[in-house]
Amino acid sequence: MGSIEAFEPSRPDEPLPLASLHQLLDLAAGRPPQEQQRLLFGVADLYHSVGGQTRAPGALTEVFIALVRAAERDIRRALAERLADAAWAPADLVRLLAADAIEIARPVIAASPLLLDADLLALLDEASLDHQVQVALRPGLGAEVARAILDRGDPAVMTALASNRTARLSGADMIRLVDGARFMAALRAPLTRHPALSEDLALRLYQWVGDALKQAISERFDLDPSRLNQTVSEAARAAALSSPDEAAARLAAKLHAADQLRPATLIRALREQKLDLFVHALALLGGLEVEQVRRALRGDTARPLFLACTAAGLDRATFPAVLREIRQLNRGLPHDPDGEAWRPAQRSAAQAAYEFRLLMAPEDSPSV
């Protein structure tokens, strides 16, 4: 096999001649995986020895990244484990590995000092759910990224954030997590152990956890039994004084005010069989009247409901599943005698809201 010492770029600012790069790639491609890995790791050692990203020639960086792109998955995974905490590696290469398959990306996302908040935010926007969870688990996660996770409101990623005891969470962030635990059960256990959980927040969390977690909270904070009883009694009185619909309206309004109301909330409400919450969340997200949404649920066609969901930002591809779940909770309504007549052409959220109001307006009302 050829030696990497044969590569000696003459000037750092000159790109490697294309023929030389192709020759090196061809040399690597024609060798068994073990030799390919040895070549790649040899280039990594050379890159490190000449000064890493601060002093290595641009041509060597180009070779290094090109070899990684051409390497097999197992080799990329071994390299990712080696470069996970390396401050000398090429930043572009680290970003490439962080966006790779999750088994390759995981060690890099977890430990690389070269990944900036902007890189982590890009992974939240563009990478898979597994990548997003790993971002949320990153030690010492920055406040900006933590807030972005809370703003997105994905239960799995929020649960990972609640499990990350070194993330930089403000008091307001902890309030959002504790409030989220009211309807995201997976948040409850990690929050009871979180070092940033205050006694006041523990009392709030106490209201909606099970007996085992109640015991854990009581032991951790040595809470006054009379104060606990008062908290539980107040929560019970508030629940007794409000109908399920009123409680759903308050919860939807609270999520909306905290900028935590998302189209995913609609899916979650249906999966938890909370049709009232679905109605109020759909109305708030779409800028629609609650009574009109209720009429759409009782309709002889699913088209108004489809328009309402589009106005709320729900992906049209998810609507068939949404419609099935609604019918299971709503005595088979809305009907759709024409069979999928709700499938109109693509339209914007604003246009869908306008059409919904036209369909739901009383016959004697003025034009919308």
TrEMBL record:
Look up the domain of life of the source. Bacteria
**InterPro entries on file:** DUF2336
User: Short name of one Pfam family for this protein?
Assistant: DUF2336
UniProt-recorded name of the protein? DUF2336 domain-containing protein
Q: Which organism is it from?
A: Brevundimonas naejangsanensis
